[in-house]
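Record type: monomer structure entry
Structure origin: computed from sequence
Chain ID: A
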Amino acid sequence: LEIQKTPHYDAFIIGLNTDRALLYERINLRVELMSQAGLEEEARELYEKSKGLDIQSISGIGYKEWIPYFEGEQSREAIISTIQQNSRRYAKRQLTWFRNRLPQIRWVNLLENPKEKEELLEELTAFVEEG
């Protein structure tokens, strides 16, 4: 199967990028906040409803990791850590996918380079004016 790298449409695609350490820190925090907001309870409900069934919803990141906890095999802290690790890996795979499949993406890191905003705006304006 050949992957088409040429887009079907003439589009100006902007990719938001950041330092990997900052991205991972934010992912870790997000998982902590999700946990505080009831992720465990939501996962437990799915787990109870899906016992013996092949349900895709329990296989997603943030849900499947809870199964060893519910079955008494791992600690809550280990589960949170695993969800964080799996979320970081998924983010890395997403970035790789976008870079490989859409090489025309204009990547920007506005946290490290705030002045890049003006440059990006000029490029976008030129793109729109060219029609």
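Annotation 1: The CA atoms of residues 43 and 63 lie 5 Å apart.
Annotation 2: The chain has five helices and two strands.
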